[in-house]
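Form P-L/3: holo structure prediction, ligand calcium ion.
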Amino acid sequence: MTIYCRGNESASGTPVPAPLNIAHRGASASAPEHTFAAYDLALDLGADYIEQDLQLTADSVLVVLHDESLDRTARGPRGWCTGRVRDRVLADLRTCDVGSWFNEAHPDRARSEYVGLRIPTLEEVLQRYGRSTRYYIETKQPEAAPGMEQHLVSLLRRFELLPASSQDWTVLIQSFSPESLRKLHTLHEALPLIQLFRRGRIPEPLDSVLEAVSGYAVGIGPSWRDVTSELVAVARRHGLAIHPYTVNEPEDMRRLLDLGVTGLFTDFPERFDCLRR
Ligand code: G3P
Ligand code: CA
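OUTPUT (holo model):
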């Protein structure tokens, strides 16, 4: 049963108080990840942010898909809907269905309206939701997608999201790649950035690493399993937000809140929305 604690109250324009509820790939436990269905549902379920993982097509369009390969979540003509996104042009991707895999994988949560859902471009996402929500955007495999950062900043500029992002974090940009984040920092210094750390790979020495991160980023995104009181204390000392990924069990959410995280990624935004009240 879905529990609704509230409707979406987090339109941009006013700061959202911590802890932030970040819908990981949308409400991806309940609808196909990175589709409008998953984003619409996330906002209904109380998310403050909807997440976008970015890939760059062969014709340099930013699209929203987690994997660099189409194979896990896309169905459709083999010639267009398999292999790497960066080897396909947008017109190819327009033929792919990214909803049916969810029905196959989760028959208990399957819905007929998920069949035929399309891969959104980032532009379509910004167009659809405008200033009614906040965006948590990840540059994926940026080293294999030259120009990704420039395309991203120019799209945010076109949608007039840069000033609001620096003021109230309407858009947060995350990456595992410090090079990508440094590039973004150079392109637009006030853009708020989050340095992700891979699971089990919190760098040492912590104090000097986080001091360096604080030179270009406003926060860190560790795996939730790596969050300790020391990590929280050192991050706070350097003025960094702490947004662990991807936390789905209420007892883990509670433990992380008690440790002092300032937000978290979850596939179940409704669970965190109820628990953080
Ligand atoms: O961005 C936080 C989290 O989403 C990183 O993991 O693989 O789900 O993008 P992934
Ligand atoms: Ca991500």
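COMMENT: The beta strands are 20-23, 49-56, 62-64, 134-139, 171-175, 193-196, 219-221, 241-242, 263-266.
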